[in-house]
Design a protein that fits this description.
Length: about 375
């Protein structure tokens, strides 16, 4: 019971800390007139990914490699399948052209790169330095892009639910950032400690705990930010937050987690064989719908949620070494294949419809 209470308390502190950090950082960014998509890809994405970063670094320092790597992989899978799926169910999401040209290809490329880095069973300190250098390059490109973009209209809604246009006093926004960071550090320590104890009590690996409970817990700030943004018609922020968070997880969280005194983090073999490929496949799944339709429909959102349910069921059955996996496993794979085909079919149909509207209008549609 004490372990469960610590887990819940740590998750609650992460949620509160992440919310404060997003409110403060996004409000400060709005003060400088940064466009909504760039805010979603950078400030909000980094703010909502701060729980993953805190958990990853703390877990790495404590020698919990399974939680450190599982947290990143599980969060990236959760972000696309659950957060985009849930946001699209609430309101169909339009996709900005910048995501198609730059950010989604970067997410796919980094998913592949991180898998290749982990193939030898270890993400070294040199790998981490390369990932952090990549983060600097990516942020530089986004900042340069933001300077060419138009600033958001005054009074635009804050994605995290703060006062419109970031109208809080600067000192209050800074206090939110500092207070959020403090709560994230404390919450991450509690969450890692409780998750490790829970893994030992349940007899499952730290990797599975990291892929499921910890990943879902640390992704709750992304859920809140994207869902609120979708409800408030800030669709660029809803999608940009997810894609930016995934990129930040791979570059910053995985990079920083490999730097502690141990000089790198070992990667469990099952993560290399199964979970990294799933993360890459989920990233690739974004390409056709973003490229052809420039829109994520409610049906596509429901299919994403279905795919995550299948993935979680597979993880739990495999972790328990359940004999039913031998009979249920093929059915789950067939169902996942049907959902993917349906997803791609809807994406193609949406793309053809968009092309038709574009030709009828004599130009590309807005957004």
């Amino acid at each position: 019971m004490e372990t469960i209470l610590t887990l819940v308390a740590g998750t609650a502190l992460l949620i509160i800390g992440g919310d404060l950090l997003v409110r403060g950082s996004s409000g400060l960014a709005r003060r400088f007139g940064v466009p909504p998509l760039v805010v979603g890809l950078t400030v909000v994405a980094m703010g909502t990914s701060s729980p993953e970063m805190a958990v990853g670094v703390i877990a790495s320092f404590q020698g919990n490699a399974g939680i450190a790597t599982g947290n990143v992989i599980g969060s990236n899978i959760f972000n696309v399948l659950v957060i985009l799926g849930l946001s699209a169910l609430l309101r169909p999401l339009s996709v900005d052209r910048q995501l198609i040209r730059l950010d989604v290809p970067v997410m796919v490329g980094l998913s592949l790169l991180s898998w290749l880095m982990a193939v030898d069973g270890y993400i070294s300190r040199l790998d981490g330095v390369c990932l952090l250098a990549g983060l600097c390059v990516y942020l530089a490109v986004l900042i340069r892009s933001s300077r060419r973009s138009s600033a958001p209209a005054p009074g635009a809604a804050d994605p995290a639910g703060a006062s419109p246009g970031g109208q809080w006093p600067v000192w209050a926004l800074v206090a939110c950032v500092l207070g959020g960071l403090a709560l994230l550090v404390i919450g991450s320590q509690w969450l890692v400690t409780a998750a490790s104890a829970l893994a030992r009590l349940a007899g499952v690996s730290e990797l599975v705990i990291g892929l499921t409970i910890v990943a879902a817990g640390t992704s709750l700030p992304e859920v809140a930010a994207s869902v609120i943004a979708a409800i408030k018609h800030e669709r660029d922020l809803a999608i940009g937050n997810v894609v930016g968070s995934n990129i930040f997880n791979l570059l910053a969280v995985l990079g920083l987690s490999s730097l502690p005194p141990a000089g790198g983090i070992p990667v469990p073999g099952e993560a290399v064989r199964f979970d990294f490929p799933v993360m890459l496949a989920v990233a690739i799944l974004c390409v056709p719908v973003f490229l052809t339709g420039r829109r994520i429909s409610r049906a596509e959102g429901a299919m994403c949620l279905g795919l995550y349910a299948i993935y979680t069921a597979w993880l739990l059955l495999e972790a328990a070494h359940h004999p039913a996996l031998a009979t249920i496993g093929p059915s789950l794979l067939v169902l996942a294949g049907l959902l993917v085909l349906g997803y791609l079919g809807l994406s193609l149909k949406s793309g053809l419809a968009a092309r038709g509207r574009e030709n009828a209008a004599g130009g590309p549609p807005n957004g």
